[in-house]
């Protein structure tokens, strides 16, 4: 019998998850399928409660359903700590959930910048939303001593301190430059720098050992990452995290642990470039064609 999983969102047409999971399905010769399901918020609860009746052994969940998925399932520690679930699976009749952004974030850094956490004392996280919660949880799990959460509204950063403890340090936006002087890692979890959004403007006055990572993956190389690379800093991009966070769900649903390969990355990169080009004015499209984004060498 064909095993099926899906991505549930509203909207969901933009999701790259089918491209990733169906690549792995074909690679491993599985009798399986991964689909998109566009489900409105008022219909989400009923859809999830009857997931198996819809023919699915599990699902990914994207905006705006991640918090609702947490409440409708039996979440693990990671999902509860982050306050959102993005991966669901049926375990002997019980619908369970987790948040794979945590392991996706860590696996991407481990792959792109090996040794990034060795002796790491201070990290700076920009933003205080769901992505930031996953990143803070991950960094504390790797024994980072101080995680500075920088947000334009510092009250939101204080919420993360209350949730995760004293090692989380709320900070104002104008403190970034000073904090980077002693930081070993900078993480952007905001939408700044994304296609259609303003760029992230910060002064990268920092030690040469700073590692910079951006959760944004469209464009592939954000202004933050481009600036960091020009200064010789090690970087990890958002596409790597997207690919690595998909691994555990695939293993839970189909019983095979897939690998993030250079071939898969190139496939998704090409798709991203095509979608970015569609959004650009005609005068800029030739520039995209002639200057493809660079991929990380170890991906």
From TrEMBL:
<dbReference type="Pfam" id="PF08501">
    <property type="entry name" value="Shikimate_dh_N"/>
</dbReference>
<comment type="pathway">
    <text>Metabolic intermediate biosynthesis; chorismate biosynthesis; chorismate from D-erythrose 4-phosphate and phosphoenolpyruvate: step 4/7.</text>
</comment>
<feature type="binding site">
    <location>
        <position position="101"/>
    </location>
    <ligand>
        <name>shikimate</name>
    </ligand>
</feature>
<dbReference type="GO" id="GO:0009073">
    <property type="term" value="P:aromatic amino acid family biosynthetic process"/>
</dbReference>
<comment type="similarity">
    <text>Belongs to the shikimate dehydrogenase family.</text>
</comment>
<dbReference type="Pfam" id="PF18317">
    <property type="entry name" value="SDH_C"/>
</dbReference>
<dbReference type="GO" id="GO:0008652">
    <property type="term" value="P:amino acid biosynthetic process"/>
</dbReference>
<protein>
    <recommendedName>
        <fullName>Shikimate dehydrogenase (NADP(+))</fullName>
        <ecNumber>1.1.1.25</ecNumber>
    </recommendedName>
</protein>
<dbReference type="InterPro" id="IPR046346">
    <property type="entry name" value="Aminoacid_DH-like_N_sf"/>
</dbReference>
<comment type="subunit">
    <text>Homodimer.</text>
</comment>
<dbReference type="GO" id="GO:0009423">
    <property type="term" value="P:chorismate biosynthetic process"/>
</dbReference>
<feature type="binding site">
    <location>
        <position position="77"/>
    </location>
    <ligand>
        <name>NADP(+)</name>
    </ligand>
</feature>
<feature type="domain" description="SDH C-terminal">
    <location>
        <begin position="238"/>
        <end position="261"/>
    </location>
</feature>
<dbReference type="InterPro" id="IPR022893">
    <property type="entry name" value="Shikimate_DH_fam"/>
</dbReference>
<comment type="function">
    <text>Involved in the biosynthesis of the chorismate, which leads to the biosynthesis of aromatic amino acids. Catalyzes the reversible NADPH linked reduction of 3-dehydroshikimate (DHSA) to yield shikimate (SA).</text>
</comment>
<feature type="domain" description="Quinate/shikimate 5-dehydrogenase/glutamyl-tRNA reductase">
    <location>
        <begin position="122"/>
        <end position="191"/>
    </location>
</feature>
<feature type="binding site">
    <location>
        <position position="62"/>
    </location>
    <ligand>
        <name>shikimate</name>
    </ligand>
</feature>
<dbReference type="GO" id="GO:0004764">
    <property type="term" value="F:shikimate 3-dehydrogenase (NADP+) activity"/>
</dbReference>
<dbReference type="InterPro" id="IPR006151">
    <property type="entry name" value="Shikm_DH/Glu-tRNA_Rdtase"/>
</dbReference>
<dbReference type="GO" id="GO:0050661">
    <property type="term" value="F:NADP binding"/>
</dbReference>
<dbReference type="GO" id="GO:0005829">
    <property type="term" value="C:cytosol"/>
</dbReference>
<dbReference type="InterPro" id="IPR041121">
    <property type="entry name" value="SDH_C"/>
</dbReference>
<feature type="binding site">
    <location>
        <position position="215"/>
    </location>
    <ligand>
        <name>NADP(+)</name>
    </ligand>
</feature>
<dbReference type="InterPro" id="IPR036291">
    <property type="entry name" value="NAD(P)-bd_dom_sf"/>
</dbReference>
<feature type="binding site">
    <location>
        <begin position="15"/>
        <end position="17"/>
    </location>
    <ligand>
        <name>shikimate</name>
    </ligand>
</feature>
<keyword id="KW-0028">Amino-acid biosynthesis</keyword>
<keyword id="KW-0057">Aromatic amino acid biosynthesis</keyword>
<feature type="binding site">
    <location>
        <position position="217"/>
    </location>
    <ligand>
        <name>shikimate</name>
    </ligand>
</feature>
<keyword id="KW-0521">NADP</keyword>
<dbReference type="GO" id="GO:0019632">
    <property type="term" value="P:shikimate metabolic process"/>
</dbReference>
<feature type="binding site">
    <location>
        <position position="238"/>
    </location>
    <ligand>
        <name>NADP(+)</name>
    </ligand>
</feature>
<feature type="binding site">
    <location>
        <begin position="151"/>
        <end position="156"/>
    </location>
    <ligand>
        <name>NADP(+)</name>
    </ligand>
</feature>
<feature type="active site" description="Proton acceptor">
    <location>
        <position position="66"/>
    </location>
</feature>
<feature type="binding site">
    <location>
        <position position="245"/>
    </location>
    <ligand>
        <name>shikimate</name>
    </ligand>
</feature>
<keyword id="KW-0560">Oxidoreductase</keyword>
<feature type="binding site">
    <location>
        <position position="86"/>
    </location>
    <ligand>
        <name>shikimate</name>
    </ligand>
</feature>
<dbReference type="InterPro" id="IPR013708">
    <property type="entry name" value="Shikimate_DH-bd_N"/>
</dbReference>
<feature type="domain" description="Shikimate dehydrogenase substrate binding N-terminal">
    <location>
        <begin position="7"/>
        <end position="88"/>
    </location>
</feature>
<feature type="region of interest" description="Disordered">
    <location>
        <begin position="279"/>
        <end position="299"/>
    </location>
</feature>
<dbReference type="Pfam" id="PF01488">
    <property type="entry name" value="Shikimate_DH"/>
</dbReference>
<dbReference type="InterPro" id="IPR011342">
    <property type="entry name" value="Shikimate_DH"/>
</dbReference>
């Amino acid at each position: 019998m064909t095993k099926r999983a899906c991505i549930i969102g509203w909207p969901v047409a933009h999701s790259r998850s089918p491209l990733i999971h169906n690549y792995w399905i074909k690679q491993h010769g599985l009798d399986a399928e991964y689909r998109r399901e566009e489900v409105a918020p008022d219909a989400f609860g009923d859809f999830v409660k009857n997931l198996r009746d819809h023919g699915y052994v599990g699902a990914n969940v994207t905006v705006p359903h991640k918090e609702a998925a947490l409440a409708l399932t039996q979440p693990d520690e990671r999902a509860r700590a982050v306050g959102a679930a993005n991966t669901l699976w049926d375990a002997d009749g019980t619908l369970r959930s987790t948040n794979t952004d945590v392991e996706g974030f860590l696996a991407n850094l481990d792959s792109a910048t090996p040794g990034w956490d060795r002796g790491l004392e201070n990290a700076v996280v920009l933003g205080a939303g769901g992505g930031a919660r996953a990143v803070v949880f991950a960094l504390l799990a790797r024994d980072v001593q101080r995680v500075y959460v920088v947000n334009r509204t510092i009250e939101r950063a204080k919420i993360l301190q209350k949730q995760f403890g004293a090692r989380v340090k709320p900070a104002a936006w104008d403190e970034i430059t000073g904090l980077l002087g002693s930081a070993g890692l900078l993480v952007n979890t905001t939408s700044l720098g994304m296609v259609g959004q303003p760029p992230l403007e910060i002064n990268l006055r920092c030690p040469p050992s700073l590692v910079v990572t951006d959760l944004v993956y469209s464009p592939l190389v954000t202004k933050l990452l481009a600036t960091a690379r020009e200064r010789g800093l090690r970087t990890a991009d958002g596409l790597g995290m997207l690919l690595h966070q998909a691994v555990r769900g695939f293993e839970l649903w189909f019983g095979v642990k897939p690998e993030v390969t250079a071939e898969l990355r190139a496939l998704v990169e090409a798709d991203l470039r095509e979608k970015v080009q569609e959004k650009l004015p005609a005068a800029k499209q030739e520039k995209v064609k002639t200057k493809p984004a660079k991929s990380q060498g170890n991906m």
